[in-house]
C-alpha cells in the first residue's frame, strides 16, 4: 500500500503550503521536493489563505512561532478547511512554554486538523499527560499507543506519535511503524520534514490511516537506506544521503 | 567572455546585499560565497538602505514576502538606484496571488531594476501573458524569446527567462544559454541563487548582456559538472557538489 | 582539558537557546546538535525569556537583526542573567551600519555577556578601534591580543577574537588557538556556529578561559579533520564533512 501511495505523490506532485519554522525551511523544502511534492512557503497574512486554497495540503508547524506567523497559520488553516484541503499540525515544543500551549489552542479553536503529529512529549501534553521534555525534544516515551488514541479522539483527527516506534491512530485502530534510524535524531528538522511529507501523502487516495502509515514507513525506510550508504560518516553526510533516499523508488529502499 | 567576467568576480569579491526569501538564505549565501562574491543579508528597514549603498549589487527576491520585508526591499532598491548599484529583481511566485502581483508593482514603481530574472510563468505574467504555473514553479514554457524581449522593453531592463534554455534580452538582442542540468530543478532555491550570482556578475566590466550570459552559462556549467561527480546519488549529494562546482575555475568546468 | 570539557557537553547535552540570524539557523542547529548540545531557536517576545530560563546557555547573534528580534534578544538575555545562565553575544556586522552599532549598545546596556565573540573588525569596533571591514567580514587583522584584552576589560567578559589565530582574553590572561582551516571561511555561518558551540562549552565545569579555549580548539580541529576527508572537493562537501567532524571524539580529531 505504501508503494502505491508514494507513487501517487510522484505522479500528482501535490503542492504543499508549509507554514513552518525558520530553522527547517530549506531542509523541508528540499526533502519534500526530493520525495515528489511541490513545496511552497508563504508566511504573509496577506496571501496565506489564497495559497492554502491553491494547495493540495497545508502544514502548520509552530517551531519558531511569532504572532504574525500565528495569524498567517490560522488564516491558512481556516481557508484550507473551507476547501477540504488536508491540514497537518505539528505542535513543536508545545509543552515548553505557556505561550506555545496557548498558541496551539488558538490554532485548534479555529482550524480542524486532518492529522496531528509530534513526539511523545508534545502529543502527551495535548491530552493532559506530562512527560519529560527537553526544549523541543521528548525525553520520556510514555505509552505512545494510549497517547495517540487520546489525541485522535480529543481532536477528531489522525494522530502520529513519532519515536523509536511510530504510533498512528484514528481513535480506534492503532498502527505502528518500526522503520527508521537513530541518525534522524541527529538531523535538525527531521521531525518537521515528516510533517510536510505527511501532508503530501494525505492528498492521495488511501484511507487516512494508510496515508499516514505510508508517510511514516517511507520516511523510516529512506533513513535506513541512507544510513547504509558508504560515504556516510556522520550527521552531515547522512543528511545529504537522506535527501537522496527520499527521491528513490520505495522498492529500491526496501531492497 | 564568461571566463573573464567570472574571474573578475573572484578578484573583486563584490559585496551583494541579498533581500531574499527565508527558504534559500543559507543556500544562496553559500553558493554566492563559493562563486566568489561576498554575501550579506539584512532585512531591517533601519539599515537596508545603508547596506545597499555599501554594496556592489542588490538582489530583491519576493519568495517569502511579508510587509516589513517589502518595505526593506523598496528602501534598499531606491538607495541602490541613487548610487548606481546594480539591482536584480526576482519576482518569485508573482502570478500565484494578487498580493504578490501588487507587491511586485509596488517595488517596480519605486525601483529601477538592472535585471529581472524569473521562470517563464513569472516573466510572462509581468507582461500580461498567462502561462500555467504551479505554486512558485512554471509548468508551461511559452515563447521565452518573446517574453524576454517584452519584459526588457516594458521595464527598461535586462530580462533573463530561465528554463531548459535560458533566454536573455535587452529588448533588442536575444542570447540563449543551453548549459544546465535537470537536477537543478530538484534543489530548492536554485533559481534564487542564480539571482545572487547574476547580481555579482553585474558588478563586472562587461555589457549587461555579457554579464547576464556569464552568470547563466557559468551556473549551467557548474550544474553539469556537479552532475558528473561520482559521489552524486540524488538531489542531496548533488546540492553539495553543486556548491563545490560553483567554486571551481570555469576552465575546469568546461573541460 | 579541551577533551574533558567537550566530553562533559556530550554527557549533559546542554540546551542552548539560539537567538541567531536567519541565514545560519539550520547550520547552527545541525552543528550544535552534532557537537552534543540541544539547540532551540525561539524569537518571539512572548516566550524568549521563558525559554532562556529553561536553557543552559543563550546565544545572541545580530546577523539579520530586526526590531522584533532585538526586543526578544534583550528579554532573553536579561532573563538568562537573572538565572546565571551563560550568555554569548556575537556582534555580527556591528561596524557596518549605525543601526547595528546602536543595537549592540541597546543589548549591552541591559544584558551582561559571559563572552563576546567576533572577528577582529567587529571586536575592534567595540573598543573604538577602526579596522577595515567588508560587509560582515573583517579584512584587516589588527592587533588581536590588544583588542581581545580591551573588549574583555571594557565589557567585563571573556573575549574571543576569531581569525587565523584565535585570541581569547579575560582582560588579564591571553590564550591563543592555531587549530583551524581556511575553508571555514568559505562556509556561511561558520563564525556564527562557533558562538553556539561556545555557549554549550560555557555550561561545563572549567574556568571561562578553559571553556572558551575548548570551544575554539575543538572547532578548529574539526575543520582540520574535515579538510582531510577524501570526499571533500570544495565548500559544499566540506560543510557536510565538517558537521560530521563536530560529532566525532576529540581524540579522533587530534589523531
Automatic annotation (TrEMBL), chains A, B, C:
Enzyme type, top EC level: transferase
Molecular function in Gene Ontology: hydroxyethylthiazole kinase activity
UniProt keyword annotations, A-Z: ATP-binding, Kinase, Magnesium, Metal-binding, Nucleotide-binding, Thiamine biosynthesis, Transferase
Residues reported to bind ATP: 117, 162
Organism domain of life: Bacteria
InterPro entries: Hyethyz_kinase (IPR000417), Ribokinase-like (IPR029056)
UniProt EC number: 2.7.1.50
Pfam entry (one): HK
Cross-referenced NCBIfam families: PRK09355.1 (NF006830), thiM (TIGR00694)
Protein name in UniProt: Hydroxyethylthiazole kinase
Organism encoding this protein: Halobacillus campisalis
Protein's gene: thiM
Amino acid at each position: 500500500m505504501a508503494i502505491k501511495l508514494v507513487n501517487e505523490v510522484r505522479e500528482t506532485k501535490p503542492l504543499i503550503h508549509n507554514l513552518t519554522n525558520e530553522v527547517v525551511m530549506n531542509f523541508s523544502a528540499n526533502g519534500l521536493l526530493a520525495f515528489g511534492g511541490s513545496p511552497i512557503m508563504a508566511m504573509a497574512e496577506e496571501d496565506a489563505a489564497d495559497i492554502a486554497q491553491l494547495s493540495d495540503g497545508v502544514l502548520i508547524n509552530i517551531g519558531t512561532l511569532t504572532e504574525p506567523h500565528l495569524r498567517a497559520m490560522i488564516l491558512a488553516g481556516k481557508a484550507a478547511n473551507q476547501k477540504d484541503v488536508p491540514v497537518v499540525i505539528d505542535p513543536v515544543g508545545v509543552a515548553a512554554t505557556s505561550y506555545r500551549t496557548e498558541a496551539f489552542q488558538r490554532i485548534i479553536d479555529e482550524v480542524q486538523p486532518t492529522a496531528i503529529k509530534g513526539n511523545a512529549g508534545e502529543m502527551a501534553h495535548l491530552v493532559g499527560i506530562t512527560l519529560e521534555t527537553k526544549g523541543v525534544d521528548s525525553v520520556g516515551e510514555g505509552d505512545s499507543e494510549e497517547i495517540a488514541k487520546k489525541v485522535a479522539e480529543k481532536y477528531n483527527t489522525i494522530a502520529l506519535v513519532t519515536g523509536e516506534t511510530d504510533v498512528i491512530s484514528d481513535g480506534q485502530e492503532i498502527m505502528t511503524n518500526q522503520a527508521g534510524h537513530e541518525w534522524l535524531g541527529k538531523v535538525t528538522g527531521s521531525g518537521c520534514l515528516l510533517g510536510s511529507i505527511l501532508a503530501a501523502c494525505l492528498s492521495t487516495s488511501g484511507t487516512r490511516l494508510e496515508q499516514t502509515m505510508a508517510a511514516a514507513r517511507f520516511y523510516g525506510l529512506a533513513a535506513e537506506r541512507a544510513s547504509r550508504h558508504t560515504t556516510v560518516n556522520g550527521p552531515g553526510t547522512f543528511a545529504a544521503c537522506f535527501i537522496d533516499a527520499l527521491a528513490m523508488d520505495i522498492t529500491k529502499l526496501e531492497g
